[in-house]
Each structure stands twice: as structure tokens, then as C-alpha cells.
Amino acid sequence: MDWTLDERYKQPQFKDPSATLMMLPSDLVLIQDAGFKKYVELYAKDPKLFYADFAQAFQTLEELGTSNLVSIA
């Protein structure tokens, strides 16, 4: 699928040929880089694996806590 820059937005955003789907530059990297694409394809074939891996990763983040946070506002 070809993704083109959607000029309507100030920040970079891409649209599919039908203009019904959008992606951010960070989304496109996931399908353009071979190192990331293998995971996109793996999780697309097995959503249960994605949810299991995500749950484990999120749990790890939660258990690490939130010390040393810095306000950016």
C-alpha cells in the first residue's frame, strides 16, 4: 500500500490511497524497517501473542515504578 503525506495537517501524517486510514511517521517505520516489520507480521498473525507480550511488558513497566519523573510543562 502506498502512503502519501497528508498536506492538511501541520505535523506529518500520512494517508492511504482511499484517505480512510492514517499513519504517523512512527507507524510507518514499523512496516518499512525489516527489524520492526517481522514483529508487525508476527502480531498481525497472532493477536493473542501480542496481548500476552504487551501485558507482560506493561506489568514490568508498572513494577519498575515512576521515580525520577520530570515535568515538561
Q: What is the secondary structure topology, with strand pairs?
A:
Elements: E1 4-5, E2 14-15, E3 22-23, H1 25-32, H2 34-45, H3 47-64
Antiparallel strand pairs: 1-2, 2-3
Helix pairs in contact: 1-2, 2-3
On the 0 to 100 scale, the average pLDDT is 93
> Percent helix among the residues?
40-55%
> Which word captures the global form?
flat
End-to-end separation in angstroms reads: 38 Å
Low-confidence stretches: none
Structural class: mainly alpha
Based on CA atoms alone, the radius of gyration comes out at 17 Å
> Major beta sheet, specifics?
3 strands, antiparallel
| Total DSSP helices | 3
Order of helices and strands: EEEHHH
Q: How many independent structural domains?
A: 1
Strand content: 5-15%
Strand arrangement across the biggest beta sheet: 1-2-3
